[in-house]
Automatic annotation (TrEMBL):
<dbReference type="GO" id="GO:0016887">
    <property type="term" value="F:ATP hydrolysis activity"/>
</dbReference>
<keyword id="KW-0067">ATP-binding</keyword>
<protein>
    <submittedName>
        <fullName>ABC-2 type transport system ATP-binding protein</fullName>
    </submittedName>
</protein>
<comment type="similarity">
    <text>Belongs to the ABC transporter superfamily.</text>
</comment>
<dbReference type="InterPro" id="IPR003439">
    <property type="entry name" value="ABC_transporter-like_ATP-bd"/>
</dbReference>
<dbReference type="InterPro" id="IPR017871">
    <property type="entry name" value="ABC_transporter-like_CS"/>
</dbReference>
<dbReference type="GO" id="GO:0005524">
    <property type="term" value="F:ATP binding"/>
</dbReference>
<feature type="domain" description="ABC transporter">
    <location>
        <begin position="2"/>
        <end position="228"/>
    </location>
</feature>
<dbReference type="InterPro" id="IPR027417">
    <property type="entry name" value="P-loop_NTPase"/>
</dbReference>
<keyword id="KW-0813">Transport</keyword>
<dbReference type="InterPro" id="IPR003593">
    <property type="entry name" value="AAA+_ATPase"/>
</dbReference>
<dbReference type="Pfam" id="PF00005">
    <property type="entry name" value="ABC_tran"/>
</dbReference>
<keyword id="KW-0547">Nucleotide-binding</keyword>
Length: 298
């Protein structure tokens, strides 16, 4: 279980994270999504005790992370795969972690094989690893202590398609055995395939969270994409039907298709798509929720 309660982090004048609250339950994978600079890493660092919050709190397994004795035996963390010591081999890296955690070295060897770093790869120095190999090593490290919770920041970065598939299966199995997973990723299709719940953050604030089914089947309304969205947006606004613009230029309108179609006809808009909102899966939801507010002409 992970509980995040009104976490806020400011760096001087920069509000990195503002009033963020969510829970991750055992037996579930929670996808933590947001555009670059949204506040995902900062939130995860606060959960893991690496950045003190300006206000608010976070607990893992009921206590602040820093109060967990030998945390690697309870919580597997992968925040920055590039941060590993480049002069050590993969095997040395994991043996050292096994020693720190009090895990037998045989398990370290097994973990390396399990994550796809067999003997030849494990004997090489980490400095010569590809990003995908570093991620695999980081995942082996996170799993080494047989934890009940996994906190992974962009674990699929740099993995090849086989690696991404492997990761998905691993996380699903982990959760199905009662584990708790919090996972951030830019790979929306992958998150959609594996996560049970989503937390979406933009500009440091939570813009949506909930069950996958609830979020992806939710809002109703109409999704419309026009060759030039500007005039349509103006007619919609003048008709009392304000639209949310996605970063792909689409508009989501709280109205039925007929009302939007009539507005489009009035605007003389050339439509490329007109359909119920929510059919475009996680990607569409993400784009509509995380679009930057548009600057209006003076
Ligand atoms: N140490 C720091 N000092 C100042 N500003 C910071 C610091 N760390 C993060 N920020 C700022 O906080 C905001 C959130 O950054 P964060 O790294 O948490 O975003 P993110 O969602 O993880 O982004 P990405 O997907 O690009 O990794 C950004 O505006 C970032 O510039």
């Amino acid at each position: 279980m992970i509980e995040v309660d009104q976490l806020t982090k400011r760096y001087g004048d920069v509000s990195a994270v503002t009033d963020v609250s969510f829970r991750c339950e055992p037996g579930t994978v929670t996808g933590f999504l947001g555009p670059n600079g949204a506040g995902k890493s900062t939130t995860m660092r606060m959960i893991c005790g690496l950045a003190p919050p300006t206000s608010g709190s976070a607990t893992v397994l009921g206590v602040p992370y820093r109060r967990i004795a030998n945390p690697g035996r309870h919580v597997g963390v992968l925040l920055d795969a590039a941060a590993q010591h480049s002069g050590r081999t993969g095997r040395e890296t994991l043996s050292l972690s096994a020693h720190v955690l009090g895990v037998d070295r045989e398990r370290a060897g097994r973990m390396l094989r399990d994550v796809g770093l067999p003997a030849a790869a494990a004997r090489r120095r980490v400095g010569g690893y590809s990003l995908g190999m570093r991620q695999r090593l980081g995942i082996a490290q996170a799993l080494l202590g047989d934890p009940r919770v996994l906190i992974l920041d962009e674990p699929a970065n740099g993995l090849d398609p086989e690696g991404i598939h492997w990761m998905r299966t691993l996380l699903r199995d982990f959760a199905d055995r009662g584990g708790t997973v919090l996972l951030s990723s830019h790979l929306l299709r992958e998150v959609e395939a594996v996560a049970d719940r989503f937390v979406v953050i933009a500009g440091g604030r939570i813009v949506a969270q909930g069950d996958k089914r609830e979020l992806l089947t939710a809002p109703g309304g109409t999704y419309v994409r026009a060759l030039d969205p500007g005039p349509l947006e103006e007619v919609l606004a003048a008709s009392g039907l304000p639209a949310r613009r996605g970063v792909d230029g689409s508009l989501t309108v709280d109205a039925d298709a007929e009302a939007v179609g009539r507005a489009a006809a009035k605007a003389g808009a050339v439509l490329l798509e007109l359909r119920p909102a929510g059919e475009g899966g996680l990607e569409e939801l993400f784009l509509s929720l995380t679009a930057e507010p548009r600057e209006t002409a003076p």
